[in-house]
Amino acid sequence: MFNSKFFDEISTKVSKAVANSPAKDVEKNARALLAQGFTKLDLVTREEFDVQTQLLSHTIDKLTALEARVAALEAQRNP
């Protein structure tokens, strides 16, 4: 009934219409608003969060070891 050229032409026309429609501008503006809102928030990237998590874990381990060492030294000093 219809040939593929007909569908290709319709597809091209629809694609052009969507590209030139206000919907494209709305999406662009929404993305800009969201980006602006996120910059105002005090957010960190996932990589920064992971680094800080590892640093905190290392610090807790070191603190635990130092507490044990102090306790052992205090026990030696006060028999």
Comma- or semicolon-separated keywords:
mainly alpha; rod-shaped; 2 domains; 79 residues; 3 helices
Describe the structure.
The chain has about 80 residues and is mainly α. The protein folds into two domains: about 1-45; about 45-79. About 85% of the residues lie in helices and about 0% in strands. It has three helices and no strands. It is rod-shaped and about 95 Å long.
State the share of residues found in helices, binned by percent. over 70%
Structural class: mainly alpha
> In percent, how much strand structure appears in the residues?
under 5%
Span between termini: 101 Å
- Tally of domains: 2
DSSP strand tally: 0
Principal-axes geometry comes out as: rod-shaped
SSE order, one letter for each helix or strand: HHH
Average of the residue pLDDT scores: 84
Q: Give the uncertain stretches in residue-range form.
A: none
Largest sheet: none
What count of helical segments does DSSP give?
A: 3
Radius of gyration: 31 Å
Question: What's the quick description here?
Answer:
With 79 residues, the protein is an all-alpha fold. 85% of the residues lie in helices and 0% in strands. The radius of gyration is 31 Å and the shape is rod-shaped.
Secondary-structure blueprint:
Blueprint: H1 4-19, H2 22-40, H3 46-77
